[in-house]
Amino acid sequence: FRFNTMATILQLETATQVCSAAISINGETVALKVQMASNIHAGSLTLFIKDVMDTAGLGFSDLDAVAVSKGPGSYTGLRIGVSTAKGLCFALDLPLIGIDTLQMMSAGFLATQEDYKGLVCAMIDARRMEVFTALFDTQLDYIGATEAKIIDEHSFADELSASNITFIGDGALKCAAVIEHVNASFSEQNFNSAANMSKLALKAYKNAEFEDVAYFEPFYLKDFVLTTPKKKV
């Protein structure tokens, strides 16, 4: 594939209930389609891709790379997004960029908070009081590892004693009643949008941080557990 200094990147986000596609040119979002609903990814993602391509006035030959939200998140959603991205990269001979979903969410938050000085804790709802989570500083560097974490009143106690933390994502609001600290704040805004990949995708493209299209797998964080619905009596 060719390498351009002005990168045109198709970006896909399917890690949560949000289904989203975007086009960025040189790190700026020029087209976006986003919808939040359950179980729409399989039927909607290719339509969203066509929509943003048409909006941007581009053909597939104009693309320089495809970026996809790689997780953690929904098993099914991630499979759909990654398989779609890999198929496009195979067909078009384009490089594949994997973007950490939690880092992408934090990038979206920080873009709205120009003078923010604290840490960002991105959370994706798992089940009950469990979340997929990671802490980031304002440079989007990781503070500790990404983890599946069961939240209680002691969660993040050490970090909160040292710094302000804003908790974001669909897993954050359920934790608001549990994490009670003067340095804790919670954002209701949803940052799961392909538009929030634009700067991260450009950086990865310029640094040639590409995934192996044949072997790339989403970052599930936890094994998929198949549950059988209870039979009605």
Could you please describe the fold and organization of this structure?
This protein is α/β, with parallel strands linked by helices and 233 residues long. Helices cover 26% and strands 28% of the residues. It is built from five helices and ten strands. The protein has helices at residues 41-56, 75-92, 101-111, 157-162, 198-206, and strands at 8-13, 18-25, 28-36, 65-71, 96-100, 119-125, 130-136, 142-150, 165-168, 184-186. The chain has a five-stranded mixed β-sheet, with helices on both faces. The radius of gyration is 18 Å and the shape is globular. 44% of the residues are buried.
What keyword list fits this structure?
five-stranded mixed beta sheet, 233 residues, 26% helix
Task: Please summarize what this structure is.
By secondary structure, the chain is of the alpha/beta class.
Topology overview:
Blueprint: E1 8-13, E2 18-25, E3 28-36, H1 41-56, E4 65-71, H2 75-92, E5 96-100, H3 101-111, E6 119-125, E7 130-136, E8 142-150, H4 157-162, E9 165-168, E10 184-186, H5 198-206
Parallel strand pairs: 1-4, 4-5, 6-9, 9-10
Antiparallel strand pairs: 1-2, 2-3, 6-7, 7-8
The parts where pLDDT drops under 50 for at least 5 residues are 224-229
Fraction of residues in β-strands: 25-35%
Secondary structure: number of strands: 10
Radius of gyration: 18 Å
Strand order of the largest sheet: 3-2-1-4-5
Distance from first to last alpha carbon: 58 Å
Shape: globular
Helices and strands, in N-to-C order?
A: EEEHEHEHEEEHEEH
Q: What is the count of DSSP helices, taking H or I runs of 4+ residues?
A: 5
Q: What is the mean predicted local confidence, pLDDT?
A: 92
Largest sheet: 5 strands, mixed
- Indicate the structural class: alpha/beta
Percent of residues in helices: 25-40%
